[in-house]
Amino acid sequence: MPKQTILVVEDEDDIQELITYNLEKEGYKVRGVSTGEKALAEVQSKEPDLILLDLMLPGIDGLTVCKKLRTGPKGRNVPIIMLTAKSEEVDVVTGLEVGADDYVTKPFSPRVLIARVRAALRRESLPPADGEERLVRGDIEIDPARHQVLVNGTPVDFTFTEFRVLQFLARRPGIVFTRYQIVDAVRGEDYPVTDRSVDVQIVGIRKKLGRYGTCIETVRGVGYRFKGN
Q1: Reported confidence tier of residue 195, pLDDT bands at 50, 70, 90
Q2: For the chain, which residues make up each domain, given as ranges?
Q3: Domain 135-226 falls under CATH 3.80.30.20
């Protein structure tokens, strides 16, 4: 089985070396760059299986890189884990809002980072579980086997997390779920995420659904539910 390739975008040499050493020790193939411009060029040359992306980069910052990848022809479906020295909620929320799948704050344990990488790659390659059949909710069709959402017959791109949140809610229309129930179902228990970042995922889903975004209803003081049958 070919090694999975991870692109490490980090401008601090010692941190990039530390990450590279630990990833290679786990059997991954690593490509390292130090700027956002080089990261975009690397992805255009050959898509990696996962990107570790520092937010504070010289030139084009990490958030801009993430946004460009999510809206470009390449990189839009590659898992992105943000690396940031900032632990403030606003930075995490902004990163998730532009399409990142996960985040790790510095300083971090190599073991924690490896665990996050494994989890992200596992989620990306995970086949549909038994019973995850195609869902049809009005003009919205959700196909887990193809990881595809059709809105009124038109394919719409969703990040892994957005897709899983939409699927989770659509499978149980009318049922209200708290933010942490959604997190546990999509990411697994004890995932370090804030209430606000769940709200960001919902905002992104609604925006992509367009006029059908109203199918996801906010229940004040509780959480969210998918309206309809």
Answers
A1: low
A2: 5-125, 135-226
A3: no
- Kind and range of the H or E element at 63? helix 62-71
Which residue's structure tokens are 């990488």?
117
pLDDT tens profile 124-135 = 655 544 446 788
Angle at 196 between CA 151 and CA 48, to 5 degrees: 60
* 60-104 pLDDT, tens digit each: 999 999 989 988 878 888 889 999 876 666 777 778 777 888 888
Residue range 5-125, CATH number: 3.40.50.2300
- Structural contact between residues 50 and 78, judged by C-beta atoms closer than 8 angstroms: yes
pLDDT at 171 over 80: yes
- Integer Cα distance of 203 and 16 in angstroms: 33
Tell me how far CA of residue 88 lies from CA of 141, 179, 190, 198, 219, in angstroms: 37, 19, 19, 16, 27
User: Distance between CA atoms of 60 and 63, rounded to whole angstroms?
Assistant: 8
| Burial class, 185, CB count within 10 angstroms (exposed 0-12 / middle 13-18 / buried 19+) | middle
What is the CB-side half-sphere exposure of residue 38 using CA atoms within 13 A? 14
